[in-house]
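Hi R.,

Here's the input for the zinc ion complex you asked about:
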Amino acid sequence: MYTQLPFDELKVDPTQKKRVAYFYDSDVGNYAYGAGHPMKPHRIRMAHSLIMNYGLYKKMEIYRAKPATKQEMCQFHTDEYIDFLSRVTPDNLDMFTKEQIKFNVGDDCPVFDGLFEYCGISGGGSMEGAARLNRGKCDIAINYAGGLHHAKKSEASGFCYLNDIVLGIIELLRYHARVLYIDIDVHHGDGVEEAFYTTDRVMTCSFHKYGEFFPGTGELRDIGVGKGKHHAVNVPLRDGIDDATYKSIFEPVITKIMEWYQPSAIVLQCGGDSLSGDRLGCFNLSMQGHANCINFVKSFNVPMMVVGGGGYTMRNVARTWSFEAGLLNNIKLPQELPYNDYYEYYGPDYKLDVRPSNMYNANLPEFLNKILTNIISNLENTKHAPSVQMNEVPRDAEDLGDVEEDTTEALDTKGGSQQARDEIIQPDNEYYDEDDKDKEERNINEESKPTDTDGDVKMDENSEKPVVTEEEMKEINELNSEN
Ligand SMILES: [Zn+2]
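And here is the predicted structure with zinc ion in place:
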């Protein structure tokens, strides 16, 4: 079953236009987990500077999302956890001794200045990206401030506090019958898997290092329960996996999932800690090997959200995410790095490349064969199995824009001076409606929101033909509250 595929040069088709919406908030690079902590939000700013200086702003639309509100966060997380995140600061930490233990903040997940705002940025980007995909306003949404896959319903974990991915998927489920989540971070995507473990509306598929490694979950035999049985896929890998080997397991697994599960939207977590030379990781992927996954998933032409994740050797994360943003725009960025704000980080070669090392690949063909055979045979059970019919997902009528909404005043109502804060750069192709800027995108009705945090999620009554009924959404929310 397992065949080692050759690793060919990545190919892009420049004629295949994709509408890409890229979310970035310039504040994100200012947050710091603390001295010596491996997670550095600054890497997102580094990636952004490269992306801009390569000129990708000419190809995609750039947005600053409105930060996720407490109300929005509570669609997945508990009120008391979100309330705690919104109130705790390094200065009042003493008042929250009990909560620190309860919500697992401390060493790995420290309380730092602006923690809640940081969570809001990460969550806002993924929710707004999902909303734009829902409305057919883009084919691909990118949020590198997102991808925080370890966060739990009422617990921080593995440098993650708010699970922006779960929030984004919940948004997608309003319009999409089946959503596929793919995770190529070196760590198991446990928070997302857990959130959707008992439903067949979401299939999660995580490729990760397994065995004496954080978070310790993600065994081959963990396949979901109840309705969700066979809808969690785990690919446990060993140290030193290289480009050709990763491709040889990634492509057949994803191909089978696409064939049998037929998702209408995909969320791809692009954790950069699976790259060679990562400070915490133990895989041996080059930039090309990592990017091949993004290029491969994109080739299915299904609406896709791309989020960040781990990645602890900043210069390599920034390089790889920039290269991948290029691929998502059908461009292979040239090797020579353009001058950018953080040019000195990329010495001595100043090249857009992450090379593999000569480390030993502990993933032997017999081992991979066993994994692949097992996964493929499990996946056969998903063939035409989901409880939601396999027919086409209805889309909203084309949004021709509303002149009212496009006035400066209207734009400014979106959380402060949206237009003033945004650096919306006009793309160089005629693909977009000039007025099609960042409007109210999410499905939660702002006006109808209760001001307290009773967690009573209001459904958008204006959305046409949503796939998820209120009943189903309740069911999904209940699944999340079972533990
Ligand atoms: Zn990770």
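One thing worth noting: Residues 185-187, 271, 273, 309-310 surround zinc ion (CB under 6 Å).

Cheers,
M.
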